[in-house]
Every structure is written in structure tokens, then in C-alpha cells.
């Protein structure tokens, strides 16, 4: 399934480049390569690009590809205390600090 999604994304990118060329230069790259817009091979490519767009709709509903939350990290149930800039809470640092505190003697009271 992962390979199918990569192929679909590649075809969507090809379609986007083709639409950009049509908008900017009125040049249909797919039609010029495969023999015109009505040629069978061109229509097949257009159909595959359209189907790939429908497959890529699944990216919106897949938590593994949710760029806003995970940025490529697999979702877990662990609580984090970091912000987008830096980690606010570092439990390991606090444990090290606690280990370095000298024991209290009679003079410290």
C-alpha cells in the first residue's frame, strides 16, 4: 500500500506540473508527448492522474502522515512537555540535579 501511495503522489505531482504549464504557457506536456488530448494514451494518463488525486485524498485522514502534529514521527501515547521552540521540561536534567544535592548534616539545619 505504501508503494501505491508513492506512485499516486508522483502522478499527482506530474499532473500539477502539467496544469502549471497549461496555465503559464498554454502548453499541455502530456498531450504533446502522447499525441494530443484525444489520443488514447493521453486519456489514460489523465485518468491515472485523476485516480491518483482520489487516492491522495487518503493522506488527509491518515494520522501517520499528519504533518501538523507529528512531522513524520510515529504517533504515541507519551506525554511531551516540549514546545515548538525547545523542550520546557527535561526530566533527566532534573534527576541529575537531584542526585548532585549534598546530603544535609547537622550544620545545615
Task: Tag the structure with descriptive keywords.
single chain; 109 residues; mainly alpha; 4 helices; 0% strand
How many individual helices? 4
SSE ordering: HHHH
Strand content: under 5%
Parts with pLDDT < 50 across at least 5 consecutive residues? none
Whole-angstrom Rg:
27 Å
Termini, distance in Å?
67 Å
Secondary structure blueprint with pairings:
Layout: H1 2-25, H2 29-34, H3 40-56, H4 91-100
Helix pairs in contact: 1-3
Explain this structure to me?
The protein is mainly α and about 110 residues long. The chain has a domain at about 1-65. The chain has helices spanning about 1-25, 30-35, 40-55, 90-100. α1 (about 1-25) crosses α3 (about 40-55).
Characterize this entry briefly.
The chain is an all-alpha fold and 109 residues long. It is 52% helix and 0% strand.
Amino acid at each position: 500500500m505504501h508503494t501505491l501511495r508513492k506512485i499516486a503522489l508522483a502522478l499527482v505531482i506530474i499532473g500539477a506540473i502539467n496544469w502549471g504549464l497549461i496555465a503559464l504557457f498554454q502548453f499541455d506536456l502530456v498531450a504533446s508527448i502522447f499525441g494530443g488530448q484525444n489520443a488514447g494514451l493521453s486519456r489514460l494518463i489523465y485518468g491515472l492522474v485523476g485516480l491518483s488525486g482520489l487516492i491522495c485524498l487518503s493522506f488527509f485522514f491518515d494520522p501517520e502522515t499528519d504533518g501538523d502534529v507529528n512531522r513524520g514521527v510515529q504517533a504515541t501515547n507519551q506525554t511531551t512537555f516540549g514546545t515548538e521552540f525547545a523542550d520546557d521540561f527535561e526530566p533527566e536534567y532534573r534527576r541529575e540535579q537531584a542526585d548532585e544535592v549534598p546530603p544535609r548534616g547537622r550544620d545545615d539545619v
